[in-house]
Amino acid sequence: MSPFLAELLGTMLLILLGNGVVANVLLTGTKGNNAGWLVITTAWGLAVFVGVTVAGPYSGAHLNPAVTVGLAIAGKFAWSNVLPYILAQFLGAFIGVCLVWLMYIDHFRRTDNPGAILSVFCTGPAVRNYFSNIASEIIGAFVLVFVVFYITGAELTPTKTPIGLGSVGALPVALLVWVIGLSLGGTTGYAINPSRDLGPRIAHAILPIKNKGTSDWPYAWIPVIGPILGAALAAFLYLQLHV
């Protein structure tokens, strides 16, 4: 298990379970149809727990380019490893959502709502206003990365073996993502992760999905740029507070 493979597998599991719950809630004829926002946010938090648990001991389990960039800006991660990590995260997200498509393929065929189908793959705004949409993604990612800086001392005792996101425990990060979804996710669907959105959006564009409609490329830059900006702001603030 290399760091590259750990990031790929961890992100794959994150997307398989995270996008999987969206499919379960939104697609026609599933057991979880119309289960609601609480189910989605809870499963996303648990999906983070799963991904971090698997990848943590080998890569630090960033699973998110915004986290990788934020840690690098703060001097907690080598810049030479940023691009390989991001590549692994995008590949993992793409593979993960393709598995969701295979898992729910019968329900994709029964769903005639292009918006619901697109939502299984990527995020979209509740109200399309690019200024407020990118502000939402910046704020959500800022909270994610800024809080991560303050829980990086988590250790297992008595051996004091570091766990999780660069020694962040899997459970604290899962709870953090859960509360971000519950509190801040109602505007854009809280991508807060460029690979989580762009990788699956590419998959939506190329997979043979009935009734899928467009991939909404005019919006695609927001869940990529917004989280990166939020992570950078979190890192700069952290550095100013710890000079």
From TrEMBL:
Pfam families: MIP (PF00230). Keywords: Membrane, Transmembrane, Transmembrane helix, Transport. InterPro entries: Aquaporin-like, MIP, MIP/Aquaporin, MIP_CS. It is found in: Membrane. Belongs to the MIP/aquaporin (TC 1.A.8) family. It comes from Mucilaginibacter pankratovii. This is Aquaporin family protein. The chain crosses the membrane at residues 39-61, 82-104, 130-151, 163-184, 219-239. It is a multi-pass membrane protein. The keyword rRNA-binding does not apply. PANTHER family: AQUAPORIN OR AQUAGLYCEROPORIN RELATED, AQUAPORIN-9.
